[in-house]
Amino acid sequence: MNKSFITNLLASICVAAGFMFDQPVVLSVGLFALSGAVTNLLAIHMLFEKVPFLYGSGVIALKFESFKVAIRNLILTEFFSEQKINNLLNKAQPNIDFEPIISHVDLNPAFDNLLEVIEQSQFGSMLGMFGGTAAIEPMREKFIEKMQLSLAQISQTEDFKALVTQTLSQGNSAKGLHSTVLKLVDERLDELTPKMVKEIIQTMIREHLGWLVVWGGVFGGLFGLLAGVL
Questions:
Q1: pLDDT at 32 over 60
Q2: What percent of the chain has pLDDT above 90?
Q3: Which of 169, 182, 200, 224 could disulfide-link to 28, CB 3.0 to 4.6 Å?
Q4: Contact predicate 164/96, CB 8 Å
């Protein structure tokens, strides 16, 4: 239902009826209602479209860059400011399951490093009496199994989770995320054209602006009634 069309139609009917049946009050109501509705309808049209000889019309297109800056500031200030991101990371309780990661980590280098440390220590010569590092090679699989189990248990402790949360909430993480969001927002805004901005805003508020025409007609009609009676 086109509220603007219906309002103007009713006002026009009042004008026609008042003129045809010589009813000054009805004619006054119709004229005032029509003037109020048409004026508001023209104002809405001027908001989105450039009208020749009417200064200030087409404000959406004229203020295109200002709208882009306003949209950018709104997104970055209200939703993705560095402080808000930092607060979000501080409140976040990461529920990351590290076990699948740990189970796929190659812990052989850890065992090799352990052997190297033993060889270079005061126990190296003693170990040589029993066949050197080859004597403890059979312990590799058991060592890896125990290490994976220990790491998995550590990853489930509250201290470890708190450490992860603290690491994520560091300023560098927040700055990095903020920079990423900033880049994405700027890239998206660069794709906008005056026509796209006009259509976005027009779609959001056209339905509500239609009531301006209705109420313009209603109040115009009331003033017309008052003028006709007096």
A1: yes
A2: 17
A3: 224
A4: yes
